[in-house]
Structure formats: C-alpha cells, structure tokens
Amino acid sequence: MDAPRTRQQHREQVTDELMSAARRQLAQAGAAGLSLRSVAREIGMVSSAVYRYVDSRDDLLTRLIIESYDSLGAAAEHAASEHADSGDLDRWSATAAAIRRWSLDQPHDYLLLYGSPVPGYAAPQDTTTPGGRVPLALVSIVRDARTAGRLVPPVEADRAAPATLRVDFDRLAEVIDIEAAPAIMLATITGWTQMFGMIGFELTNQTRGVIDDHAGLFDATTRLTGWLIGLR
Question: What was the pLDDT predicted at 156?
C-alpha cells in the first residue's frame, strides 16, 4: 500500500517543480518562449522524461492558464464575498481593486491570460470554466443588487443599447442567470472590459507620462462604470 502512495507523492512533487520552473521561464521569456526542454533542464531532468508528466508544451501552457484563472478567480470571489455587506458600488470597487492587486503582483500570469495570443496555441475547452470565474464574480454583485431592487441604471443608458445586441444579451443573461435590461447588460460588459483594459494599459506602460496615480484612476473609472450599471 505504501509504494503506490510514494510514487504518487513523487509524481506530485515533480509536477510542482515543473510548474514552478515553467512560471519562472514565463517571467523571463514570456508565454511564446516557453520550452519544455528548458524547463526540464532547469530542474535537472532529461527532456524526454518531461513527457511522463505533461503531454506537450501546449499541455503545460493550458495547466498554467487554468492555475492562473483559478488564482485570479479566487481573489475576485473572495473580495466579492468579503464585501457582501458593503454598498453595491463599494463592493464592485473592492472586487475590482482585488483583481488589480492580483494582476500587479503577478504581471506575467496576467499577460498569459490577457496578453498577446501565443502563436500556434489554441486554448482548449478546459479553460472556459476557470476563465469565467472573474466575470461571474462581478456579475454576482449586479445580480444581488438587481434581486434586492437596488439597481438604478441611468435613464439615458437605454439609448446606448442597440436592438442588434439584444440576441447576444438574451443569450448571456440566460447563461449567467440574471434578469436584466439590455442597458444593464451593456453597462456590465463595459465595466468588465474597461477594468481589464485599464490594468493592461498600466502593466504595459501605455499610460506612462499621462497618469501618475494609477490606483486613483482605476478606482474612479471602476466607480464610474459601476454607476452606469446602476450600482449605488
């Protein structure tokens, strides 16, 4: 009974070492530069032996992506839960701040998820569920406010949601289990994408020389989009 358990423990240890080495290489060379041969060399393993633990470079990339999505998703979910008793707009802002902190602490993981696509790599279906954790955490804030009757979107917002998007919005509303007017759906998607756009610009120095207080700009922008959603 002990031998199989020992082999499993050894496998888990080697897999952890592989993943750690892959993350270090990710920081040095980027996702496109990830090499199984280099990862194996770093942990003192012959390259052929790596295939006992991962099927290919793409398999390794997928594992890194899933781990990163889950880590970021956990940070967003924790913040949304921790601030459940706060005002809706404060809860939205606090969750956004947690997403930004995670991204700044782990910029290479953020860029793996939201940066340039890796040539020749197509993310499999396995990444869909972990990739949806962050938007679902944000949607949960909107849903709770909507259910409690606290959602107050600006009247003018209805004019910004074209009829051509209603099919998409209806499909999304069913998937994420929320009953919301097109204006709310539009504003929520805007808030989500704006949030990640701001983080991406900050990480890639697109706002260098334009803004010094990135945290202040991020919070102000996040609150503005939250207000457009109807959070108060």
Answer: 65
